[in-house]
Amino acid sequence: MSIQNKQIEDLVRRRAAARMGGGQKRIDAQHEKGKLTARERLALLLDEGSFEEFDMFVQHRCTNFGMDASHIDGDGVVTGQGTVDGRLVFVYAQDFTVNGGSLSKTMSEKICKVMDTALKVGAPVIGLNDSGGARIQEGIDALAGYAEIFERNILCSGVIPQISLIMGPCAGGAVYSPALTDFTLMVDKTSYMFLTGPAVVKSVTGEVVSQEELGGSRVHASKSGVAHFTAETEEEAIERIKLLLSFLPQNNLGTSPLKPTSDPVNRTDDSLNSIIPDNPNKAYDMYAVIRSVVDDGEFFEVHRDFARNIVVGFAHVGGRSVGVVANQPGVLAGVLDINASRKAARFVRFCDAFNIPLLTLVDVPGFLCGTQQEYGAVITNGAKLLYAYGEATVPKVTVTLRKSYGGAHIVMSCKQLRGDINYAWPSANIAVMGADGAVGVLYGKEIKAEENPEKQAALIEQKKQEYNDLFCNPYQAAQKGYIEDVIEPRNTRFRVIRAFEVLEGKRQDIPAKKHDNIPL
Ligand code: HXC
After folding, report:
1. Is residue 69 over pLDDT 90?
2. Does the beta carbon of 132 lie inside 6 Å of ligand 1?
3. Has this prediction a pTM greater than 0.70?
4. CA-closest candidate to residue 53, choices 39, 40, 41
5. What is the separation, in whole angstroms, between the first and last Cα of the chain?
6. Would you say 368 and 337 are in contact if contact means Cβ atoms under 8 Å apart?
7. Residue 494 has what pLDDT?
8. Catalytic, out of 225, 319, 376, 407
9. How far apart are the CA of 168 and the centre of ligand 1, in A?
10. Which residue has the least CA distance to atom 51 on ligand 1?
11. How distant is the alpha carbon of residue 228 from its chain centre?
12. Which CATH number fits domain 270-433+473-505: 1.10.10.10, 3.40.190.10, 3.90.226.10, 2.30.30.30?
């Protein structure tokens, strides 16, 4: 055998060894936990044959605690580039079979290289997290490694989409990298995220709590909002992320790919002409409206289980990717509260950063009142959504379906927040408040003075009627040019598509500044 052939054989052997990570026993242990290995995950995510690995032979440089005696090529993370549906992405997948996927300085260097390259060429970064956190043997070096990653998460923010999949433990400061990225998905039962685990919680506060209760996927999807998505299996998780990518551009200078559809642009839907109940306090399902308007009825929801009184997600209209924000009358009457405001504000800002137009469907009775909301800073949190819409320069099309009252009217992409095209259905009520509240304030004394209960009820009804006739309709707003048109509900799809077509070339600036100061 020639020397060159021996060298090639050695390369093949080293590559094969590196691909085994921590070895067959640990791979089996990973499978027994219902988890895939880093390489198996990447094989599912990336188009076949597209993966190009970086730094396969990198080894850690730690000499503490006998670490110099154990070196595994690749050092616990598989990094590189590949394509998803033909589009370039950069990836890193932590390998739990090597030192529990714990983060060494060299592992962070590998991850940072992927992020730097992604930033340089303008492509999304997808991180598959499965790690015991900072590699304990490395001390400050491991912490420095995390900080290097966090800094890149910050620099990449708003330039390239960043997506985190949590497919195992994610504890301590390690949770901050996913928190800095745009979207986080957690796999049910096999992943968890928390700053301090149950044992530390018990010793510090006395609280007894399981891993699942403290930081499982359900908790973060419904209570904290840390997770935007969950999936029952790793396979499902990867499919969801692929779908998510199909709505996103490669970077902040690009636009999302068009998705051809056979759903007619001029399709009308008679069911929308009867969807609003006669009783203004009765709910209807906003999902039905969204599905009716978007292409093929396909809506990719973000944060489905968190703050369900507002609905956000991606869809295509006339082939264009748009972000949909809609109040949900079926949950808390669609009121805006702290969590709904936070959820929608972050989504609106993501869309604006990545040139994704915004479709807003409004049916909002106002902001939730009371001490719980005030003490929790509903003022500051509500201002986040107001701010997000006000600064957004992407095309903004808004349709008011029913209620649009007070501050919540302004927040939900009104004309004066540089809304581009604002439509209303004939059932729209655009006013400072609903008739019940308004009549109480305006005619309270007169109503109280009427001692006959029947006459009193009739007076209330009469005043409410007068108020509704004057204010609770879309025509006051239409007469003053605050909305462009009152449209028939059945025509919403094609009016919305035409509006986005018109806005295709929209150019709008914000004053030059170092950065803004959104009320955090
Ligand atoms: C070094 C680690 C490690 C770590 C796990 N391992 N975590 N090695 N540093 N942080 C090693 C284990 O020693 C073991 O090695 C192998 O990985 C697999 O771990 P097991 O414990 O056998 O696996 P399992 O039973 O599944 O438990 C997984 C685990 C547990 C729950 C993650 O390993 C664990 O609690 N690890 C420590 C978690 C932690 O507290 N990390 C620090 C968080 S603070 P062998 O050789 O025996 O197979 C943090 C600060 C970041 O990360 C700050 C950023 C600013």
Report:
1. no
2. yes
3. yes
4. 39
5. 66
6. yes
7. 96
8. 407
9. 11
10. 173
11. 5
12. 3.90.226.10
